[in-house]
Amino acid sequence: MQHTAGSVPLDNDSMYAHIFSFLGLPLSRDLQDPSVGAVVMGVPYDLGTSGRPGARSGPAAMRQASANLRWEEMRWPWGFALRERLKAIDFGDVVYANGDSDSMLQEVEQHAAMVAAAGKTLISLGGDHFATLPLLRGVAQHHGQLALIHFDAHTDTYDEGEKYNHGCMFYRAPQEGIVDPSRSIQLGIRTEYERSDHQYAVIDAHQANEQSVADSVAAIRQRVGDGPAYLTFDIDCLDPAYAPGTGTPVVGGLSSSRALQILQGIADLNIVAFDVMEVSPAYDHAQITSLAGATLALQFLYMRASRL
User: Fold this and answer.
1) 0.85 cut: is pTM over it?
2) pLDDT tens digits for 162-184?
3) 234 has binding-site annotation
């Protein structure tokens, strides 16, 4: 593309210049544009964190790391260029009153509902995992009860009686009727939970690592079916070797390669919204975790584009 002197290219593929937005996508809040199919939104929140803090900086870190992904026009191993099928925008971050979790809940739910009602697919960048609860609430306003596809080291089904906690979301969501656990599945689990009355199907980390990718994909597809699904990916599903920068790292997790392969295998499911959570760059090294999170978000965009 030709540019006049002093102009700034809007299709910038530089890995170091103008890295303000995710993948260099246009910064926009225009949800009325019919050509836009996906919206990337940051949720810089970590007041529900129980361990190491810092996930509020996750959205900015993933945006910065995504500059490393700009140069590849056609992401391997997908057989098409993303920009040829799907137009996406970076919506920026949800802003809430400082230190006010109720404000966060209200603002995130409202924004998620607005994006879903506009017919766009929402990809959210976190932020601690508690932010997924208002995201689910907002998306369910438009799509109804959701199946949950949940990648994590923890089930997050704990009832500790705390109002704000990043381990309670998937205990509360079925109680609110926004998630159907009978159609939901959790992958990579490797911490304790009450197995006797656990409502979700579980592929624990040992099983996910030992069985074939095809077996994991088949189990997800069988459980979730054709209804609307929400995919949430806590970065600590990955082994700390692949994602050290997170609040509650647990060894023995999935490799980034295995996770990406599983995601590609379920691309044609009716996944209406995605998120990647718990990137805490203060504990990261050389952007390893931020790059993993950004790559997962890019994978989500390709998954959505593959259905067009």
Assistant:
1) yes
2) 788 888 899 999 999 999 999 99
3) yes
